[in-house]
Protein 1
Amino acid sequence: MEEELFKEYQSRLPRKLIDDIRDNVPKSISAAKLKKVLEAASEEYAAALVNPGEAVGVISAESIGEPGTQMTLNTFHFAGVAEMNVTMGLPRIIEILDGRKELDTPMMEIYLNKAMAKGKDIEELRRFALALKETRLQDFVTEFSINITDLTVIVKLDKGKMKDLGLTNSKIIEAISKQTKMLNIKDDGDSLVVKSKSKDDTFNEVYKIKEKIRGLHIKGIKGITQVLPVKRNDEFIIVTAGSNMADVLKLEEVDSYRTTTNNIFEIEQVLGIEAAREAIVREVYKVIESQGLNVDVRHIMLVADTMCVSGTVKGITRYGVVSEKSSVLARASFETPIKNIINAALVGEVDELNSVVENAMLNQVIPIGTGLPRLVVRQPSGKKQ
Amino acid sequence: MADEETVKEEVKIDDVKEPKPVERIEPDDHYISKHVRSIVFSVLSPKMIKKMACAKIVTPELYDKEGYPVDGGLMDIRLGVIDPGLRCKTCGLKLKECIGHFGYIELARPIIHIKFIGIIHNLLKCVCRECGRILIPDNKISKTKEVLDAVEKEGSVEDRRKKLKEIIANLKTVNRCPHCKAKQLKISLDKPTTFMEEDSRISPIEVRARLEKISNSDAELFGLKVMHIRPESMVLTLLPIPPVTMRPSITLESGERSEDDLTHKLGDIVRINQRLFENINAGAPEIIVEDLWDLLQYHVTTYFDNSVAQLPPARHRSGQPLKTLTERIKSKEGRIRHNLAGKRTNFSARTVISPDPMMELNEVGIPKIIAMKLTVPERVNEWNMNYIKKFVENGPEKYPGANYIIRPDGKKKKITDETKEASLEELQPGYVIERHLMDGDITIFNRQPSLHRMSMMCHRAKILPGRTLRLNPSVCNPYNADFDGDEMNLHIPQTEEARIEAEILMEVQTQLISLRYGLSVIGCVQDSISGNYTLTNDFEMSRQEAIDVLSAVGITDFSKLPKKAMVNGKDVFSVLLPNDFDYEGHSRLFDPSKETNDKDAYVVIEKGRLVSGVMDKASLGEESGHMLRAIHQKYGKDFTIKLLQMLFRLGIEVLLRTGFTSGLGDTDLPEDARAKIKDTLDKANKDVNGLIDSYKENRLEILPGKTALETLELRILEVLNKARNETGVLVSKFADQSSNTMIMAKSGARGNLLNLAQMAACVGQQAMRGRRIDKGYFERTLSCYSKGDLNPDARGFIANGFKSGLTPQEFFFGSMTGRDSLMDTALRTPKSGYLYRRLSNAMQDLKVEYDSTVRDASSRIIQFSYGEDGIDVSKSENGTINIKRIVKTHS
């Protein structure tokens, strides 16, 4: 009975409101009263709809731009206990809206599968977390030296650190030879002797080899520089500095449904554009909320949608969203006017004067808000003019 | 042709001396309003330049001995007039009527246009030097075209050109033309304007010749639309001369003429061009001709752009660089952003603002002097004749008068004492007078930076004595104004449409609900909040007094007041509320984490009676004001603004009777409280010392991913912050609960408990970038501490309160963080301003269509339904529809 009523109003109310009503209405409500409630709700909903022609873009821009002046600049706030610096505040918003691929402080929140998340075996959790951390050759090497007579590089290993990391000489050699095929590596107990496969090497080239192998990736996941297991709402998660979503999601222990990163570009690559759009909304909202400001999500959603309509994430810059505008004058009025006009002239571009600035420039009515409706008058027949 | 023109010149000068009665176009009432549908951009061909030119410029001279423009000179009157009294030889109109006409000069040798240098370079590289065909074999052309079209669709035209270059580079026959088998040489660009082929120079003549050879279809492949641009147009043979109206000369006080930068530059071009002509005709040696040619190239280049990287900018005699075409257009002060996208207005005023709480919220107080300068056009008709006549009689000197009278044909006459009588006689229906601004007129009030649509609202004029613009302090918040010397702007809309639009869309009451978060942006402020809090928080007054207060507020019906000798403050407050108003909410006392809250934490209004709860910022304040939001929802904007006005006065009236001040005594604490604070601080000090000791002895448990020192710092910060918070709790517990400072903090009117604690007990740790202060000398902050001192006081912990006073060191640390936050603000403003500009530029065209989709200017769908549910935030209650309220009222 009740469900039928709800169903009846489905076309008139968004699902969220129907669910809200269902949650708030007392169980014993009579059908007549429920109908009354639904009717009143749909009336209020209809009254709260946006008017056609409303300049929602400008409203969203204002709603995000205005509180921007109130945000603090260099907040390095602490995520969780007392760890990990994360860019927040205005710089973070600028970073997101620029559509940057390299972040100031990339970060991941890795959720774990049930067994591990409960944290029964803390040691195992710790070991798993540490295994994520990227280890390079230089992290456990005491010295890189060059044997000038043999033209070899001698890598002295720190056995203690290697044990902590669970590495053996053969594992290291395997990891190195996987990445470069032009090296011969000899196991010498406490050290490795690296020699180039090509025969006529100069000292210079050996030096280059030495510098190159320093940064070779040996173990863990590329890009993850710090790991920190944290307890959040009765379960353990791993917070990392540095981000590499593609590789982390491949791990079996990871709950791939909830694991996230703050790098929107990575999300776009791994999960697609809709996920990226969601990530933009979430990340911007997080910053605004943390500053104690009140901005409706709808505004952020609209910004995220303009960034994502083209199918890839485009920044709000002259190279991104603005470059996609159809109007020459609108682009020129933003940045680099000369370049835009010259290029328009080369291809004989036509400005159809569909948007706001061009019409403001020409002192014409702008096609938005009250400027949108046009009047068509039928000429009375039989009369001239 | 040149001869003909000289003949004309004679005639023309006569013309000017005795102006012949030319048929004059009277400014008409009936404007033909044309609508520009679209604008096409293209490159002018030499043919077109000649066609649109009205004069050929042949001499660099500007004026003759008598000061008349020389014919064939740069100020030729055929190019338009900039002197009063002269008439344009082309269109016959006078100054300000003639919009100017183009001329041209014939360049002795072709000159490369600096702005097309990149594309010319690309073209030369991709085209055969012999036959002019594109370096792609015929059989591959159609396929290449497909690829390129796809690239262009994906990206831009620039990507297309890049791709084309790539394709050609990847062909095997790089060095041979696939069509005529001619050998191709490597072409490089010697910046800024010289092309080199291997080691020999390609002269612009040769460049032009090669571009001419390119076939139309090959140019199209390149992304050039031949309809609008032939490649050879990019090498100039004719140079258009802009009309004088766009480069007017200024007459200095000394009577000297100072020419525009463009005229200077053009003068250089014409002079060198003439010299080049002469030398070529005289058969001068090649080297001299080449030199002059290069010089001409330099001048033309700097004429277009005076900031080319490799060229020294052309300068005035004073050494300041000339502002040529590119500089005129670009940047914030350039034509596009300064004159086209932003415009100046008349009928506006600006002065300092000051508060006036007795004014209505939607009023603005305007000084009489301003009101007598700003005018409103009023049309005369049969019925308002007498009303209008009064204004004209008063004239411009007496308020309310009129400044101008406009005849139906558009002729505008100033009203003076002499003309007053005549004007009065003349007045008849169809005339328009510009009368002084009066009470109730519609004005638009604005404060920069206009970050909001609420930064520009419509107010009713209220003419007042004095010299400042006045506004109700409640509307400060949307403007973000205060009265420390802020200035604001006032605009008077001049047409009926503009006035109506301002009234319906921009008036203060229509802007009550923020479109950012769906709550009231306007609310009670400062004293009015304290007053309403005092009134509703266990306050009693005699009925007599209550009636006195209420009548001061503007209430005349006291039937709602209980008939008792003493009435409760809540009852007095309830008198303002409508009788059918129900509301449930929370006051600031409400703590969601607690199970049971104080009774006053629940604001309950039943049938227009405040049953429980105190009125504070949560119910009345700006940016929260939940009760105000509920009132607005039920009774609409006009009622809300009226109620707000009354609430505001009620608060002030109550305080007027009780008195309200704050003093040093508010921060007094009892002896034992002070002892407790001292204990807390001592204990914190001891804890820190313990931490430092354990650090020195390496006993400190190191946090993962941190060094020992970082761990120590974090732990110390933790301890000290905890200590400061504890002193805060002590202060809020022991300080006089009824003190006015406390009332302000509790009601949310001004200040908070932290401020009080900082005054009464302890200012706390000064932190920069989330760390204790560690800058200054080597290993210490100030020279009075020993090296490596990690104690709280040596690292910026201020143990004193503001009342007890800070030690010199503490004061210094305090000023460090103070300076840091000042810098922060100074750096943030331009950053956030740029972000805002980018956002609004990117999104300004988005609008909701009639099918409820959100689309941009090219009708691309951005969202299918605005915000996923189509709700307008400014019509919502904090972003949603209040289901709870609906359920409650209907079940």
Protein 2
Amino acid sequence: MAQTTDNKRTQKLKGAGQRRILYSQIEKLERDIRVGQELIQVEAKRLAQKSHSKAAAFENDLKKDLFKEELALQPAAATRDVWLGEQLPKLEDKQRLQYRKLRQDLRRSENLLDKKGRLKDSDAQLSAPSKKKLDELLAEQNKQRDELSQSLLRKAQDSRLDKAALASRQAAFDKAQADKVKRVKDLQAQLAKNDAEHMAAFTKKREARIQVLRNKLTGKQARLHESALGAQYDLPQDVCLRLDNVSMVFGGLRAVDNLSFDVKKGEIFGLIGPNGAGKTTVFNCITQFYKPTQGDIIYRTHEGNVLLLNYYQVHDIITKGIVRTFQNVEVIGELSILENLLIAAHQEYTAGFFSQMLNSRKVRREEEVMRERALKALDYCGLTAIKDLPPVGQPYGTLKRIELARTLMAGANLIILDEPAAGLNDQETIELTHLIRKIQKDYDVTIFLVEHNMGLVMDLCDHICAISFGKKLAIGTPQEIQSNPVVQEAYLGTDDTEEIIAHTEVV
Amino acid sequence: MQNQYTLTSTGRIKKIIRHPFAGFVLIGVILISLQLIAILSGGAWPKSSMLNGFASVMIYAIVGYGFTYLLGYAGLASLGTAGFVGLGAYITAYVLRNMPGVPYIAVILGTLLISLILGTIVGFISLRIEGIFLAIVTLGLCEIFYQLFSNWLDFTNGPNGASISKYPIFQTFFNMSRRDAQSAFYILLVFITVGLMMLTYNLGKSSTGRAMLAMKNSSSAAQAMGISLLKYRLLAFLLSTAYAGLGGVMFMSYLRYSAPQNYTIMFSLNILAAVLIGGSRNLIGTFLGCFIVFGMTPIFLQDITLFRENPWIINVTIGAIIVMVVMVYPGGLVQLANNVKSFFKTTIADRRLYKYGTDD
């Protein structure tokens, strides 16, 4: 690779600004189209749920009305059972409290309790006379229940109808029953019709909107390709990210020194190096937290556009599909885990400031779309059970998974993991390894990670780049890196190769 | 067969009570009913000084809601609030006195616009810094405003203070008597306060509020998630400025007099204290905080002989309350409310245990 000079940079700049604007507009349009499509799905789902609950409530009301009728037709015993079902639980609750109160009083009189009312000794037994008293109470309560049952039966028998009346009531009931079924069906049909109409109108409106966006998009794309602006940075098709002679200088310290490497599309790429080698600085340069002092960072987006990342601001990086995690887990303590994921979709919200203040329909719908998406990501990472809790106080492994879920939420193309296994125990590390591999397979993303845990790196990565003091030492497959003497030297010092090999195997 | 169709109405009531706006509406209803009682009883109770007290609590609460964006959401501490409130008040006074034809809504919108423009300029300069340095910069800003208010005689009438003779809308447009206009404006103020509570709540729950919170909790995570720090800092600052400007308009319209010494650094600090006492993000808490800091004196403390004869005790009492709240409940009144709730829960559980013993 040729040395990039400042002069070359300025040449590259020509027309780049305009192209950058076009790219951003295209990305925004694509996001809006995606949200629009999801909006239709969510609306259909919401409508179906609403209609279902409406029909269920209607049916419930009808059933409630018919229930008395139905009861009157039953034999007395069945009516008694229903009444008993209503009244017995209340009585039983009352009796249980009565029993517990007596037991507590007896225990207190026999000095078995402490000040708060707990048993002093959990095995302590009441004396025989007290037990007898309790048994008497139980017998009394049994009698009460029997009495209730019998009185209800008598009442039910009293209210029985004679045969003729019964027959006419039965006929009326059957009619009402049939009527009920018909009405419920009518309502369901009506609701379904309304829903279909609403959905058709909604879909039409949305699709018209999407079509407008699409037209705009094709226009922009045509403009991009027709003009000379279509010319792109030189990047092979299978490369996702290229660092081209990147240097980062802090005062007198060269934290990253002329570093160049390629990250291939769809691979897991590892960056290793001893403490202070400048690994996190490389990450910060890619995500534009630091502007590299020198050198280009070239990136191919999901859509195939090639961008020079140096020109973007740090908060624009996520819109290009690059999402990072942090070494010491940056989650938002004041938000729930679900809302932490919604943060990652921040750039996709289109509702304006005032509609947010008024909580307009658009805002609510959009929120629903994002929530749906977040729930999917949470489910994928196995966090559904704790979605409404704040992340504060969760174990470290969970926090790491929240960060991973956040990258999925943002629709990442390139995921940058800064020491994913730091602070995890062995079990958690294994789980995380599985999760990372699963994500890479299912979402077809490129993963770029820094890690100290050599087991994880060697297990997971397709290619590894080893750096030391900001300089590249070696690049290759895990086996090549493991057997590379320069890397071994940087990690462990110069002498005694056998010990080095033993060490590498242990780690 | 079993009767499973008995519906209870408690579910519906619970749903209403749990609605986030229920508390706001409750505050509104209480405030309006106080005014109605006063009208019905011919001013015997509550006295007009008490109602004025509640009105000023509402005005300060409006300013406080703006401040919750800054302190509670964005995590910035500004001491320039007083200046923007004063600006709103003086613009209102100037326009209402010198340009009688201008409609009141135009006064409000114009004031907001001027506040926003000034806020943008100040924000662009000052929001690149944060923490204690921002506080110091805005402290200077507050002092600049104070000097302007004291010395720009044509605009503010200097230390003598600016005043307007009539209540806007109700006296100028509807020709009500002074007393009626005051009651009507009080009710308008309640509606504005409750409405702003709802709007503020909505924005806080939306993606904007979340973005600000993310920025406060972890600026690097926020940036990586696509949140522009400057944009949202500026937004929070502008919101607080706009609320302060509106508060100033209301201050002038309802109390009809303001002097430069109303807008010293004390005012900013009091707002800061009120929001902190409330729990910095809780709107009902902010209202109660404003009640403690600004409302206790006019509403009931000055009716007590001890306090009336020794006004310094009032300040000491309020100061002591602030110190107590901040020391014992650093989370503000919200935390206090939660503690009270859990206290009742444990007390009831203890009583059950004493009376009925452990469940087995």
